[in-house]
């Protein structure tokens, strides 16, 4: 255990110490609840982002399939390539 | 855009809180009258002050929204009030714990400071149902701004009225005839106020960033649904 922890004054084991600990715990709990709610919101945004990415992927795939005429299909980029930065450029025609 | 500078601000907040808590528990002297219980002062009072200032800031952003008709200011006003309401809950809870330890009661109804803060809190608690009772986005933003300005003006008036009234049990620490806080306590208290203000700013920025991401997501969804019409629309951070 670090030496500074031994030097630190402990919370007095009287009524005051109990209430002080309670107040600071309430504050930390409030922050934790807020962070948990924000975490849930972030998870929802992530889920939405995944859905949007899937829609975008399917849309990119559809014209690519249309353009993949016999004899030209081998030149088309894959779906993952088309979604990569700059990957869709020069893919089609 | 709103997430810019969030990381250094968060780090600064953590450092400020570490310094403040060290000062509270290792530097600030034990108060002669209340003893160790008085340490709640460094948490409860900054929470209350920052919450009240946040309500006023929300009112100022609402004025800017009405003057410039920029939906971003409506989002700033909403988020300022939202975070301030959370801080006000913290102030009420910690104050109640302090009251129980100090006076033996969780709440004292004939104390103007407590009751006035509760009135301000309840006033802002009606902000959410008031705002979301209006479906039209533009009207919702306008009416919410009028509410924020009126309630924001009420906060300092309420504070002055309470200061002018005779307090029964709630302590008056600043600008008292006895000279207020000693130096070491004042330094600790100022650090606590600074830390709490930093935390408020960080949370406001964090919330704005999340709202902006949500708004951008909806924008992207709309653009995918109707590519031609959504491409030219101007989207502000949506408030939900």
Give structural notes.
The complex is a heterodimer of chains A (93) and B (240). Helices cover 68% and strands 0% of the residues of chain A. Chain A contains 3 helices and no strands. Chain A has helices spanning 3-7, 15-67, 79-83. With 240 residues, chain B is mainly α. Chain B has helices at residues 6-27, 41-68, 71-103, 112-125, 127-132, 137-164, 183-225, 227-230. In chain B, α2 runs antiparallel to α3 (71-103). Chain B is globular. Chains A and B meet through α2 of A and α2, α3 and α7 of B.
Task: Describe the structure concisely for a colleague.
By secondary structure, chain A is mainly alpha-helical. Helices cover 68% and strands 0% of the residues of chain A. The radius of gyration of chain A is 29 Å and the shape is rod-shaped.
Characteristics:
heterodimer; A: 93 residues; mainly alpha; rod-shaped; disordered C terminus; B: 240 residues; 8 helices; 74% helix
Strand content of chain A: under 5%
Number of strands of chain B: 0
- Please indicate the percent range of residues of chain B in DSSP E strands (runs of 2 or more): under 5%
Find the count of extended strands of chain A (DSSP E, 2+ residues): 0
Strand pairing plus helix content of chain A: what structural class? mainly alpha
Largest sheet of chain A: none
Helicity range of chain B: over 70%
The helix/strand series of chain B, from N terminus to C terminus, equals HHHHHHHH
State the end-to-end CA separation of chain A. Answer: 69 Å
* Unreliable residue stretches of chain B: 229-235
Shape of chain B: globular
- What's the average pLDDT of chain A? 70
Low-confidence stretches of chain A: 71-93
Order of helices and strands of chain A: HHH
Number of helices of chain A: 3
Number of helices of chain B: 8
Largest interface: A-B, 28 and 30 residues
Instruction: Give the helix level of chain A as a range of percent.
Output: 55-70%
């Amino acid at each position: 255990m670090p030496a500074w922890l031994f030097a630190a004054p402990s919370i007095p084991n009287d009524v005051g110490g109990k209430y002080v600990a309670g107040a600071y715990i309430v504050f930390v709990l409030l922050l934790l609840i807020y962070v948990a709610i924000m975490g849930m919101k972030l998870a929802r945004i992530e889920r939405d982002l995944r859905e949007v990415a899937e829609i975008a992927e399917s849309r990119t795939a559809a014209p690519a399939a249309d353009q993949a005429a016999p004899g030209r299909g081998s030149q088309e980029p894959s779906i993952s390539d088309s979604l990569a930065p700059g990957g869709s450029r020069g893919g089609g025609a | 855009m709103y997430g810019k500078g969030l990381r250094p601000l968060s780090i600064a907040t953590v450092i400020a809180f570490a310094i403040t808590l060290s000062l509270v528990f290792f530097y600030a002297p034990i108060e002669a009258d209340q003893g160790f219980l008085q340490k709640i002062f460094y948490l409860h009072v900054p929470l209350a002050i920052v919450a009240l200032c946040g309500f006023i800031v929300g009112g100022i952003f609402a004025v800017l929204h009405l003057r410039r008709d920029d939906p971003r200011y409506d989002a700033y006003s909403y988020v300022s009030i939202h975070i301030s309401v959370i801080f006000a809950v913290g102030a009420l809870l910690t104050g109640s714990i302090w009251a129980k330890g100090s006076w033996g009661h969780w709440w004292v109804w004939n104390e103007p400071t407590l009751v006035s803060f509760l009135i301000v809190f309840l006033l802002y608690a009606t902000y959410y149902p008031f705002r979301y009772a209006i479906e039209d986005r533009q009207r919702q933003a306008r009416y919410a701004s009028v509410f924020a300005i009126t309630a924001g003006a009420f906060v300092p008036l309420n504070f002055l009225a309470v200061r002018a009234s005779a307090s029964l049990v709630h302590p008056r620490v600043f600008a008292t005839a006895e000279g207020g806080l000693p130096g070491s306590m004042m330094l600790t208290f100022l650090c606590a106020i600074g830390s709490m203000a930093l935390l408020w700013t960080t949370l406001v920025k964090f919330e704005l960033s999340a709202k902006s991401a949500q708004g951008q997501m909806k924008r992207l969804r709309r653009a995918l649904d109707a590519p031609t019409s959504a491409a030219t629309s101007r989207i502000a951070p949506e408030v939900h």
